[in-house]
């Protein structure tokens, strides 16, 4: 039997993703009980989490399983990730051994590890996540890495379908927002990939210097074309970005080009504090009716104004709720009754 | 359906509290199984906990449910509590969004948040707890706030009934104790309110400057009168405090008047190190037989002497055990089969 | 009914240990379901853990029970361990009260506490563990103390039996390894005691100054003799240590003689960096076929070379897996259906 990891949405075929979304819809309607009895999910958080942790722990429980929270470096050991390392420093366990051992206790592993490498060329390979997937004999689920957040992307796709009905040809705008920190590109890339897979017209709005990784952009373009969607790249103007949108996905991310140069990155970013979703910009969407999405946590009045977040266009809480339903479906497929 | 929060004991009617206590007694006798199947309690600890955490986690499990432990700022995000805040600082998620999202995953929220405001006028409004209650669509249980600890109060009431039988007219002495820190007044106020609701004669002993919040004192007096009890306020003398008591509840708390002035408060407190329950003072109770109560954790030989804590009068461990039984009853009422 | 603690393997009779190992084998074959319904294990980690935590949490769940993770000083209160302490300092709860209260909520306690005392004469008495066992009315399981790690020893015994078949007369080599820190002697002492109980020929190899506690050495010798085994003590040479071995157990530990003198200990240790299990040394074992054991976490290329750990002789992952099966058996015996 070959184990099935879930490291990126695009690793699964469109049919498989469709099947997951259908199953998630049935789960949400309360049609599926049980299916994870005696199953254990070990969740490894190398970075903090609220939604991912709570939704997966709830998902396992609701179907009869159990999730374990591990925080290396806090309640458990600090992990070494370098192959061949002579471990005479601070790390007390190699990821190779942790992955192998956890694979004996648990039925699947969830791993959250944000970029740690000094160099984007290294970080973009998601070394921690890939090591867990390589050395653990059980399925590994990406709980957010440097490049991908496929569990968020699944919830995003479910939300787009729920709120827009037919998604084909509708306009999905991913718009950058200012944020006090340089965040990973995992969520914006994954959200755009999800929308592309739904055949939407994709717009990416960001200030100069904040292009996504070129490979990700190319993949978004390719997926959009394959799904009958389209790709339009708007540069430089947050006021134009939202015009005619059916869905506005607000997200901040750091400059990939200036990765590893925090001083320069912050200086560049400082010029773009105006990139924020305001009520005025929301009115420019198709009929002023676009749904407003964000993966949360959101910096209120920095990324999105209170009036927008608390208004009728915002679907951010439904989007967060859909994390639970899509994850229940995912777990049932990967280690449960539907596998 | 209107959700039912449990923020303070006095928010529930005397009949409702009586019903909770009866249900808790049945739970303790092992008469109630199940009732929380598929239910999830999200527990948010902004301050540490041993009893609350362990008893609620056990309570959920014993009836088929599951409790999730969240510690904002540690394993999950630091929460912003200010309405309308421009979140460009350290907090990464607003309590409004956390409350809304958790309400989608969990069936109830438990929230522990000790006072953080610089000013008692603000702290006494329990802004964190009240925000969760306001923005979460599911019931919120107070796991101890600046002003109230109703779960402790329920266990206190159960213990008083168990140990004293008829409580009406018996003398309940709440006596202040010295402690190296200025603690919240939630426990002493809640304990006195619970005893007042049981029709007891209430005595509060504390050094000058350590009066409870005047509104709380007035409420204790009113509740005692309504329940056929009485209110006697003794000032200034730990040796007189315990005379004739049926129950002595020892607890330290900080000066409300000097709230936000830690230097002055510590200086005032320094003069009262003698406020400690000793064997001699215990002998002054009714027949030397008063039960000794404390919510724990207790500073041994600082608040209460070892000889008292380890002696036959102490009911502190039974009191802690009753946390479990009353919480099982509470959960069954709020989100379970008895709701 | 007398509660049954599990503080050291040698506290249980050979027959009882044999029974545990047989039950563990049946558990591993999937022959035993349920047996811990409505049971709660409170796990107190005063030091970090990956395997112990994950395996016990999984063990409880797989049989219908629930494990609670408590980390005093982190999510819960810092514990005082000194009897009679006047608690006006940093510790907020005495171990006496924590033990009593947890005994009311949980059916058993697991306690991990590495040595904290300044003096080995005190540390070797395992004061934290012993206090929990003394004051808690429910069974206490040692999750690793200064002197013993009996849960690891059980898994070691199971692994030796699985891999070697008949263990009697086979050569078990416990060999010291260099490590950047001075670690407790709990694992090496417990492993050697387990092997001695299986009637093996025991060899302990360590540099001068790294003798185990003399009482432990005497006990290993006595147990070996009682079980029809033998005790050979080799001094000073890591190349000779492994010659003719059937099982090589690699482990680092700090000098008991220099306990409490970290500077002197580190200086002595510095001379022994060559104590490491290399492929060459492995080839000197019986037919080059000895199994290689380690309790994990292991410092790769410091205690054991990658080529050994990732080669066919290594059983460290099976050994870690056996933690789960032996702990399931232990829990069934101590608080479950087999008790």
Please describe the structure with a list of short key phrases separated by commas or semicolons.
homotrimer, alpha/beta, Rossmann fold, globular
Give a structural overview.
Three copies of one chain form a homotrimer. With 339 residues, chain A is α/β, with parallel strands linked by helices. Chain A folds into two domains: 9-148 and 323-334, Rossmann fold; 152-320, Aspartate/ornithine carbamoyltransferase (Rossmann fold, 3-Layer(aba) Sandwich), CATH 3.40.50. Chain A has helices spanning 14-28, 51-62, 95-105, 120-123, 127-135, 150-164, 186-197, 214-226, 238-241, 262-270, 279-283, 306-309, 316-334, and strands at 40-45, 66-70, 79-80, 93-94, 108-112, 140-142, 171-176, 201-206, 230-235, 247-251, 291-293. In chain A, strands 9-8-7-10-11 form a five-stranded parallel beta sheet. In chain A, helix 3 (95-105) crosses helix 5 (127-135) and helix 6 packs across helix 7 (186-197). The first copy, chain A, starts with 13 loop residues before the first helix and ends in a 5-residue tail after the last helix. The A-C interface holds A 38, 40, 42, 66, 68, 70, 72, 74-77, 80, 84-89, 92-94, 96-98, 100-102, 104-106 and C 45, 48-51, 53-55, 57-58, 61-62, 69, 71, 74, 180, 296-302, 306, 309-310, 316-317, 320-321, 324.
């Amino acid at each position: 039997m070959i184990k099935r990891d879930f490291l990126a949405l695009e690793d699964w075929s469109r049919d498989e993703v469709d099947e997951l979304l259908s199953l998630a819809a049935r789960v949400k309607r309360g049609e599926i009980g049980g299916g994870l009895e005696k199953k254990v999910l070990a969740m490894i958080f190398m970075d903090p989490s609220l939604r991912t942790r709570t939704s997966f722990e709830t998902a396992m429980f609701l179907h009869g399983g159990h999730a374990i929270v591990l925080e290396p470096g806090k309640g458990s050991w600090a992990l070494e990730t370098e192959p061949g390392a002579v471990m005479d420093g601070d790390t007390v366990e190699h990821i190779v051994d942790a992955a192998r051992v956890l694979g004996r206790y648990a039925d699947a592993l969830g791993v959250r590890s944000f970029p740690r490498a000094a160099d984007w060329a290294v970080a973009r390979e998601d070394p921690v996540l890939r090591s867990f997937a390589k050395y653990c004999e059980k399925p590994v689920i990406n709980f957010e890495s440097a490049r991908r957040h496929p569990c968020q992307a699944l919830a995003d796709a479910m939300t787009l379908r729920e709120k827009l009905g037919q998604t084909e040809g509708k306009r999905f705008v991913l718009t950058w927002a200012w944020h006090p920190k340089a965040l990973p590109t995992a969520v914006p890339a994954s959200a755009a990939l999800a929308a592309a897979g739904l055949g939407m017209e994709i717009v990416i709005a960001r200030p100069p210097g904040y292009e996504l990784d070129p490979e990700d952009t190319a993949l978004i373009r390719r997926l959009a074309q394959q799904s009958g969607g389209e790709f339009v790249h708007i540069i430089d103007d947050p006021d134009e970005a939202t015009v005619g949108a059916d869905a506005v996905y607000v997200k901040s991310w750091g400059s990939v080009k200036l990765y590893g140069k925090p001083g320069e990155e912050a200086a560049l970013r400082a010029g773009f504090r105006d990139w924020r979703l305001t009520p005025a910009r929301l009115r420019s969407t198709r009929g002023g009716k676009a749904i407003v999405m964000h993966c949360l946590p959101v910096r209120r009045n920095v990324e999105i104004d209170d009036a927008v977040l608390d208004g009728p266009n915002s679907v951010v809480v439904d989007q967060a709720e859909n994390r639970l339903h899509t994850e229940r479906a995912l777990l049932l497929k990967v280690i449960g009754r539907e596998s």
